[in-house]
User: What shape does this take?
Amino acid sequence: MNRNAEILTSIISDLLNSFSAKEPTPVPSYNYYMVTSVSLIMSGITKPDIDDSSIVQSALKMALAGILDVPVNMVGNPETATLSSGQIPIVSVTIYVTCKYDAESAEEAINNQVADLTNSFIEYANNAGCSININNVQVINCIFCEYGNTHI
Assistant: This one.
């Protein structure tokens, strides 16, 4: 084997090893947009906190748009339901999102970045002058349901 072939073989081997050592990350699944229902389970916030505050709603939409890499206008308005009104309130928040992820990949992307989603939501709301205390809010889990697609 000549010297150039040895160098090329070494470079290819190094590249293959570097790819196989990394965990795969979710990437958009298709070349068209899908309408997906995103259901988030959140603690530390009540249904009225979300329903009555455009700041909280906008912060949630911006945080979700950032995670799914879509413009905020592709994230619908949240629909809420109370799951528990005890000492630590728990709500379900459903939002329709138009994105290039299929339901499984979108769910994986969110659940892999649930801390980032929570932190971004809190940061956006606080920076916008949110009047309620949201610093203890946590996104616990998310589930996605696919509804349809639009080719681009």
Summary: Confidence is low (pLDDT under 50) at residues 19-25. The helical segments are 3-20, 47-51, 54-68, 103-112, 114-127.
